[in-house]
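cron nightly-structures :: item 1 of 1
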Amino acid sequence: MKKILLLFSTIALLMTSCGEKNAFTITGKLPNGSYDGQQVYLQTLDSIWKDRINIDTVSVVDGQFVFKGVAKDVPGIHFISLENAPDFIKSALVVVEPGQIEMTLDSVSSVKGTTTNNSYQVFASQMDIVAKEMQSIWEKAKADTTANAELQAELEKEYEAKEKQKTNILFDFIKPNIQNQIGAYFLANNSYLFSLDQLKELVPSINPEFKSIKRIQKLETRVKALEATSVGSIFTDLKGKTPTGTDVSLSDFAGKGKYTLIDFWASWCPPCRAEMPKLVELYGTYKNKGLEIVGISLDKTNEDWVKGINTLKITWPQISDLKYWDSELAAAYGVNSIPHLVLLDKDGKIIERGLNAEQVSEKLAEFLK
């Protein structure tokens, strides 16, 4: 009997020690005491990392709230949300891991106290600074009512430099956290910013625990598609419908002795519409000199697609499966942002991708003299 009691005592002691070892406490503060009595929710991501699920609720007392629990072995992303929160108080990200975590919930929230949360706070602050600088550049461009071409070109270069800085900050945060949920989550949300080489460095290192997540699986598929359609590769054929419903393939045009520009676009896409007049001009200049353009539309309906073609005065061949962002045609090239241009040589080999209309014009001026 004593041996049995001793055994249960040992198990209880081990469970208590394990619980204490992985215990976490989140202590949060709100701007003032006017939120007392309101509910604060601790939320986690659902199984596909799309929606949030409430897993705990506490009340605000004297402008503070406290969550306690036991963390999993792998640090996980959670969110803190205030019931009936005013617009200036947004939900805040917190990484649940063992230790004492402190956070403020305000117009600019903050979190600290454990290794990953401290790292995340440095990252979030850096991203906030760059975002404000990008907003400032955009405001300057918007305020230029005279459309000063030289100023606009300078501001565009500044904006691109800030985008590159933003990408570098993201990469430097994701890489050491790729085994955690936070690294995989930020990679899945921002993969469109990274080059193929960067993705090939990050994706294989994702924790196997997250490989069953659909978004991660789609990312792995996209990397394979990007590799298959990288510079120097022969084009991947695409099959779809014309606006009149006729079956058509990219191979009907590409690799036929002309330079071919594949234009991934959609009538609902403002940047695509803004770029289209430049492509129309480009086509007018080079269509009789050895250029073909093939539009790959990510439209939802044939009606919108045809209306966009007519409004924008597009005269080159068009292909679509009308599946919006679920387009199998876009997926075959790993395209997840538009407009996206892919330039092929006369034999159908990919010369360059991710160009804008001006860059394509420069290339063609060199090739089609």
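cron nightly-structures :: done
The two ends are 96 Å apart (CA to CA).
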